[in-house]
Every structure is written in C-alpha cells, then in structure tokens.
Write a structure and sequence with these properties.
Helix content: 40-55%
Number of helices: 14
Order of helices and strands: HHEHHEEEEEEHHEHHHHHHEEHHEE
Largest sheet: 6 strands, mixed
CATH superfamily of the largest domain: Isoleucyl-tRNA Synthetase, Domain 1
Structural class: alpha/beta
Number of strands: 12
Shape: globular
Radius of gyration: 28 Å
Distance between the termini: 74 Å
CATH architecture of the largest domain: Orthogonal Bundle
Number of domains: 4
Length: about 375
C-alpha cells in the first residue's frame, strides 16, 4: 500500500478495491497527523495530492486527508570528534567518557584515553555518530524509562537533548513509583477503591481527582511534559499516605481513598510507562489488564476549587500571595493579609493607609 494513501486503505483493508466509499467517508479524515518537519513538507504534501486525486476518481469524498497537524521536535545529542576538516573522525557517545576539569567539560576516548573535541548539539545521525543505541538504553533502564524521559524533558514540539542524567532521573522516578505501590499493595489489595468525601482522606481524593482532570486535558493537547510534572506532584502527595497504609495504619475509609488515588496514579502513567503500570495494576489486586480497563472519570465534587490564590501588592509591587476561601469576606481577607510574614516584613512596622480588596482577584496595600 502506498504511504501516501495507506490511511484510506486501512478503513476497509478487506475490500478487493482500493477503498469502500461509505466506510472511508465515515472514518476520514484522520484526526491527527504527527511527524517531524520533513514529513510536513514531503509526505503530508504528497498525501494531500493523492487525496485530491482519489476524490476525483470517486474513491473518497473528503477534500483533506487530515484534520490536524502536529510537528514534533527531534532527539538531539552532543557531537564528539578528533581531527578537523576532511580528516575529522566522528566518535560515538558510547566510546567516550566525560570529565569536568577545572570547571570545564572534557571528553576522552575510553580506549587509549585520547582527548576528543566536544562539538555542537545536533540531530542524532549515523554520519556524525551522535546516536544512542536504543537496545543499550532498554537493557540498562527499560523501555518505559526511555519513553518517560523523552516525553517529560520538554514540550513535544521542541527538540529533546538526550542526557544520561535525564534518563537516570526518569529511572529513579519509575523505581520510586514501583516501590511506593508495591509496599502498600498487600494492605490495599483487599480494599475496594472509594474516594473520600470528608475526613482525613478528603485532601488525598481531591488531589488525585484534580490531577486526573488536569492530566486528561494535557494528554488531549499533547502536553506530555506538563502531564509528567503533575504526575510528579501527585506522587509526592501520595508518598506519605501510601507509606502510612503500608505500615498498617488508617481505617477502611482512609485505605479506600488511598487505593482510589493509587489506581488513578497508575492509570495516568500508563500511556507513557505501560509495562510498569501493568505491574502496579496487578500488584493492587486487579485481575483485568489495565489496557482493557476504561479511562477513569473524575468526581466533579472533588475538583471544585474552594480556595483562591490572591496576589498581594504593597505600593504596586507584588510582595506575597494569599490562599483563602472563595467565600471569605473583605474583612477576613484583610486580616489574613496583614498576618502574612512577607507583608509584615515589607511594611516594616508602618501602618497601611488603605487596603483595597478586589474580590477573587488581587489585594493592594498602600503604605
């Protein structure tokens, strides 16, 4: 099947003709086209030409093959070489070691110790040997770690600078997640997940469901790095409750809320670390594969924002932030602002001439 029209053929691959008009019209155009910049000027252009031609010949009715275009960044890496000009010899990252000598990074060959030059950061290519063998990464860290690092490092439309430190950081996170889930799994396996509506576990359920709502939006918009940042925050929030449950503490309602939050966490990381997520899902006592489980639904009552963060300005310059209930009246806001350490220090004992409270927006103090 030609690469310029395979998506049309996939709509009815069993047919003995190039396409089934009714099926193609129902399923096309493709919702999202994702590719590098070279795809946007070559394959995408040719696909549009083919679609126009197939429309003229009666194979499809659509005018354009794709609804949306997303151009991803490249994975890039430092270059290393010895010699110059026509005699320059490129060196692979696996063949050198990096040392920091007197505050400067220097590269040396593993075999022989000869110093080589550190060049610019460029798109990975075989010609310049600045490639990292995926098999080596998978053997050392696993496929989930490699995928998680690439998605977490920067917005997907930007280039990703490959670094061992970044991969190691992603690996530490996956190991931490597995440790937290596995240590609490025995206590949680027999508990039915149920979010808390009050009590000590309310904040746990609120954090989990707010994160679910936010990450779901991030995934829809391909903001994977933002999703990763929120998942990191949720892991930090759940580390204490999971340790508490693992130690045999907490009543049934508390454990049920932690189980619900833990399952949400595992489902959130599943698109990026599917193998780890399946292991965590099974450890929690689920018999059905996570890949066959519906996407979780957040509880509207748990994602309602009851608090508001107000910037506090003194003589027009921001000095602090105040987190307070949305329902707080002007007097409550004023009293809370004057108790903030940053405000007390900035005012230096002076009495305010005027305090202007713009509800749910900002607080201005005139000294």
């Amino acid at each position: 099947v030609d690469a310029m029209c395979y998506f049309t053929r996939f709509t009815a691959s069993w047919e003995g003709v190039p396409s089934d008009l009714a099926t193609a019209n129902r399923l096309l155009p493709v919702d999202q086209y994702i590719g590098g910049i070279e795809h946007a000027i070559l394959h995408l252009l040719y696909s549009r030409f083919f679609t126009r031609a197939m429309r003229e010949t009666g194979h499809v009715d659509v005018k354009e093959p794709f609804k949306g275009l997303f151009t991803q960044g490249m994975v890039v890496h430092e270059t290393y070489s010895r010699g110059s000009g026509m005699s320059r010899d490129w060196v692979a990252p696996a063949d050198i070691r990096i040392e920091e000598i007197e505050g400067k990074r220097r590269a040396f060959l593993l075999e022989g110790g000869e110093e080589v030059s550190i060049g610019s950061i460029e798109k990975m290519s075989k010609s310049k040997k600045n490639v990292v063998d995926p098999d080596d990464i998978i053997a050392s860290y696993g496929a989930d770690t490699a995928r998680f690092f690439v998605l977490s490092d920067s917005p997907p439309e930007r280039d990703v600078i490959w670094s061992e430190a970044g991969v190691e950081g992603a690996h530490r996170f996956t190991q931490r997640l597995w440790r937290l889930i596995s240590e609490a799994s025995e206590a949680l396996a027999s508990i039915s997940p149920n979010p808390a509506k009050d009590g000590d576990a309310l904040s746990i359920s609120q954090s989990a469901h707010k994160t679910l709502k936010a990450v779901q939006n991030d995934y829809d918009k391909l903001w994977f790095n933002k999703a990763v940042a929120r998942i990191y925050e949720l892991v930090n929030i759940l580390s204490g409750p999971l340790a508490k449950v693992a130690a045999g503490e907490g009543d049934v309602a508390y454990c049920a809320a932690v189980r619900n939050a833990a399952e949400i966490l595992v489902q959130l990381v599943a698109p990026m670390t599917p193998h780890l997520a399946e292991e965590c899902w099974a450890a929690l006592g689920n018999s059905e594969m996570l890949a066959r489980t519906p996407w979780p639904v957040y509880d509207e009552a748990l994602v309602v924002e009851n608090d508001v963060v107000l910037p506090v300005q003194i003589n027009g310059k921001k000095r602090a932030e105040l987190t307070i209930s949305k329902d707080a009246d002007q007097n409550a806001v004023t009293q809370a602002v004057l108790k903030l350490d940053a405000v007390i220090n900035a005012m230096n004992g002076q009495a305010p001439k005027k305090i202007i409270v713009v509800p749910q927006r900002i607080v201005n103090i005139v000294v």
